[in-house]
């Protein structure tokens, strides 16, 4: 059976839709719980450092299993993988909603993560195999809706739920959708991916787990506990060494866990360079804008979430449209326009003030979301299109893994830049408080100084983000459209 035979069949939109639903609830769940952490901390009487493991542990399981997804996708049918993954996610969701103790809740989150980790690379791989290259932009555009909108609306929706109901409702709401997805897949999901009887290299899996897991944990922790903490630099060091050993080992294996040789394809390598660079900068908006709205401007968490919701809707509307434009015109012009808008809006955000209107921030955030819809999936799809079909599992695994690591690094970098700048500015204003203190204001002078220092840190962090976007914009000028051919179809 070849790849082309699968593509001559009727487009499996119904099957793709159920995969989308499964991926949507899995990805939504990643950011769903963040708003509820204080409530969980109070109910189970655990410390902030302990409750944070509900998010950190989930991320680490993803970091361990996503790189291994290439092996699973090649070794087993997409039907079996999805059923096991969705079954684990459903079981974890059920246990989490009923958990009587924090330990059981944490275990349930790990079970959830073990199911959701493979959803993204599996869905991307099925779409690459099931659709011909000239139609992938449109279907990948819908995939972009899942990938971007789910985490964007998560905080807004969960903020409302936690404010009016128990945090357990977060899991009770997700459970029916995951059950529907599982049952539909059980009776209707067909297989679209060929299997190969490859062996799992245990040492590679161990090196991958330590490598990507160490980097994700180290960089994610750095923003909270500081770069000087031994856990931060020791895990980053161990992760870096393990990754070097992992890459060296893959070049010596006939059946590598991750095929790093695919970076020899220039558009795939370029697409990942742009994607990683954008991910480094993208988190400035996801982290700094809520911080600005809540801490500096004293808006409520619900208002902060609502501010980001229109941007998510813009991305949801634009992702399929961008996919169709990509099918007709390619990724170069789209990405240049998108990255130019992203650069402008990021620079605008580097000039926020204590009086910048809520509505103005909302509009700029929407334009930023529109810009991202022109960049993410078109660039990624163009890169994946250049790969031989046999390397799709490795391409999707590497793409998802690098995005996760880049997001963790970007978050740590921008939070560190913001904190350092804020502390320096706070020291300056403490020496000369009259520079910013308004004697007629009802706000405490110390609070006024703290707000100005925080604002300065946020603005400077956005400025650094803008410089990172410049790098991605320059890289976009080297994009070339991949011809509508498949260089190496899959064969049994």
From TrEMBL:
Give any Gene Ontology cellular component.
plasma membrane
Tell me the Gene3D superfamilies matching this sequence.
MFS general substrate transporter like domains, Multidrug resistance protein D
Instruction: Identify this protein by name.
Output: DHA2 family efflux MFS transporter permease subunit
Q: Which GO terms describe its molecular function?
A: transmembrane transporter activity
Checking InterPro entries in the record gives:
EmrB-like, MFS, MFS_dom, MFS_trans_sf
Family annotation (Pfam families) = MFS_1
Family, as annotated: Belongs to the major facilitator superfamily. EmrB family.
Q: Where are the transmembrane segments?
A: 12-33, 53-73, 80-98, 110-130, 142-161, 167-186, 198-219, 231-248, 269-293, 305-326, 333-352, 358-380, 458-479
Query: What lineage does the source organism belong to?
Result: Bacteria, Bacillati, Bacillota, Bacilli, Bacillales
Where does the UniProt annotation locate this protein?
Cell membrane
Q: How does it sit in the membrane?
A: Multi-pass membrane protein
Q: Please list the residue ranges annotated as the Major facilitator superfamily (MFS) profile domain.
A: 15-484
- Keyword annotations for this protein? Cell membrane, Membrane, Transmembrane, Transmembrane helix, Transport
């Amino acid at each position: 059976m070849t790849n082309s035979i699968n593509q001559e069949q009727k487009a499996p939109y119904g099957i793709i839709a159920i995969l989308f639903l499964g991926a949507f609830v899995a990805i939504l769940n990643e950011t769903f719980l963040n708003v509820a952490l204080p409530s969980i901390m109070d109910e189970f009487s655990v410390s902030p450092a302990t409750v944070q493991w509900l998010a950190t542990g989930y991320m680490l399981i993803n970091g361990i299993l996503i790189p291994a997804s290439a092996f699973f996708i090649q070794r087993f049918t997409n039907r079996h993988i999805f059923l096991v993954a969705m079954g684990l996610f459903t079981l974890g969701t059920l246990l989490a909603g009923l958990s009587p103790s924090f330990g059981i809740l944490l275990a349930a989150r790990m079970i959830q993560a073990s199911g959701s980790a493979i959803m993204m690379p599996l869905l991307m791989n099925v779409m690459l195999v099931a659709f011909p290259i000239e139609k992938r932009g449109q279907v990948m555009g819908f995939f972009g809706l899942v990938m971007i909108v789910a985490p964007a609306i998560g905080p807004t929706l969960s903020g409302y739920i936690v404010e009016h109901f128990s945090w357990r409702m977060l899991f009770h709401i997700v459970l029916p959708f995951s059950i529907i997805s599982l049952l539909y897949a059980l009776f209707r999901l067909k297989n679209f991916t060929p299997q190969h009887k490859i062996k799992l290299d245990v040492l590679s899996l161990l090196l991958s787990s330590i490598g990507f897991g160490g980097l994700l944990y180290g960089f994610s922790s750095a923003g909270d506990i500081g770069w000087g903490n031994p856990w931060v630099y020791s895990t980053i060091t161990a992760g870096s060494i393990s990754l070097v050993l992992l890459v060296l080992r893959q070049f010596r294996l006939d059946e590598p866990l991750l095929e790093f040789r695919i970076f020899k394809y220039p558009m795939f390598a370029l697409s990942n360079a742009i994607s990683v660079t954008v991910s480094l900068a993208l988190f400035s908006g996801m982290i700094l804008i809520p911080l600005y709205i809540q801490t500096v401007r004293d808006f409520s968490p619900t208002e902060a979430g609502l501010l980001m919701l229109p941007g998510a809707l813009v991305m949801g509307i634009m992702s399929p449209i961008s996919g169709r434009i990509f099918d007709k015109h390619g990724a170069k012009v789209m990405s240049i326009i998108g990255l130019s808008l992203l650069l402008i809006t990021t620079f605008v955000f580097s000039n926020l003030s204590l009086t910048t209107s809520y509505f103005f921030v909302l509009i700029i955030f929407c334009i930023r979301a529109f810009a991202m819809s022109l960049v993410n999936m078109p660039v990624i799809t163009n890169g994946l299109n250049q790969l031989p079909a046999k390397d799709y599992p490795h391409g999707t695994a590497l793409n998802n893994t690098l995005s996760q690591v880049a997001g963790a690094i970007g978050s740590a970098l921008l939070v560190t830049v913001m904190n350092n700048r804020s502390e320096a500015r706070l020291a300056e204003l403490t020496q000369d408080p009259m520079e910013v203190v308004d004697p007629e204001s009802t706000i405490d002078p110390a609070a006024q100084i703290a707000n100005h220092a925080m604002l300065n840190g946020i603005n400077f962090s956005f400025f650094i983000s803008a410089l990172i976007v410049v790098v991605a914009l320059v890289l976009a000028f080297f994009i070339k459209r991949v011809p509508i051919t498949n260089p190496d179809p899959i064969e049994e």
